[in-house]
Amino acid sequence: MTDTTDGRLLAALKxxxxxxxxxxxxxxxFSASAASFVDDLAHVSVAEGVAxxxxxxxxxxxxxxxSTSTAGQIFxxxxxxxxxxxxxxxxxxxxxEGDCDRFWTMLESSCQxxxxxx
Length: 118
Fold this sequence. Notes:
By secondary structure, the chain is an alpha+beta fold. It has a single domain (about 5-110), classed as GMP Synthetase, Chain A, domain 3, CATH 3.30.300. Helix content is about 40%, strand content about 20%. It contains five helices and four strands, in the order ααββααβαβ. Strands 1-2-3-4 form a four-stranded mixed β-sheet. The longest helix is centred in the middle third of the chain and has 15 residues, at about 70-85. The model has no long low-confidence stretch (mean pLDDT about 90).
């Protein structure tokens, strides 16, 4: 599963979306969200340099205060960091149920593809 870019990205996203372990919280680590998003992850693929991360509709129920706060921007930056750690990934598309606008609406924005900087 982790011998492809898809598999490695999926593993990284699952680890991040699960949230910090209790022992990590005790050390002061935290996540942009208080809730685990791991069950909201529907599909991850990488094709021709474009990573697509698709969430289930349930993510909208868990997103909560992330939409209008700094936490939302941190969440977005962390997703970008996860995707762009793989040199094969040049762009990132984020979706809910296959709909880019639906994801970005949670961040009070419209659909966009995030490109690697540099």
